UniProtKB/TrEMBL annotation:
Recorded coiled-coil stretches: none
Compartments, as annotated in UniProt: Nucleus
Main location class: nucleus
GO cellular component entries: Ctf18 RFC-like complex
Organism: Cercopithifilaria johnstoni
Nucleus keyword on record: yes
Keywords: Cell cycle, DNA replication, DNA-binding, Nucleus
Family: Belongs to the CTF8 family.
Name this protein carries in UniProt: Chromosome transmission fidelity protein 8
Signal peptide range: none
Molecular functions per Gene Ontology: DNA binding
Taxonomic superkingdom: Eukaryota
GO process annotations (BP): DNA replication; mitotic sister chromatid cohesion
Length: 97
C-alpha cells in the first residue's frame, strides 16, 4: 500500500519529544492539560511536575520522526503535522522540591 504524504499549507512545525523513565499517573485525562513546567538552565533541562523536579538534557535524534494526521475527507491521504528532530531525555529519578 502506498501512502501519499502532503505537508500542511503552512510550514511544518518542529516539535521535541520528552522521554521520561517510569510512568505518569493521573486520576483524570491529561489531554490538553499542562503537566509541568520545562525550563532551561546552562544547557540543562529542568522539568517540574507537582512537587518533583527532574534534570535532563537535549539529544539530537539519529533519524527524525514525523507526526502524521489522516485526512478524514480523503482516504489514503496523510498530512505531515510536525517533524521531531530532538528529544529531551530525563534519565534520573525525580527529586523532591
Amino acid at each position: 500500500m502506498q501512502i501519499r504524504l502532503i505537508p500542511r499549507e503552512e510550514s511544518v512545525a518542529e516539535w521535541a519529544m520528552i522521554e521520561l523513565q517510569g510512568t505518569l499517573d493521573s486520576t483524570g485525562t491529561l489531554a490538553g492539560q499542562r503537566i509541568g513546567i520545562l525550563k532551561w538552565e546552562n544547557k540543562k533541562a529542568l522539568f517540574r511536575i507537582g512537587h518533583h523536579i527532574m534534570e535532563g538534557k537535549e539529544i539530537k535524534l539519529q533519524n527524525p520522526l514525523l507526526v502524521l494526521v489522516r485526512d478524514v475527507e480523503n482516504q489514503g491521504v496523510v498530512q505531515i503535522a510536525a517533524v521531531i528532530r530532538k528529544k529531551v531525555q530525563f534519565r534520573d529519578r525525580p527529586m523532591p522540591v
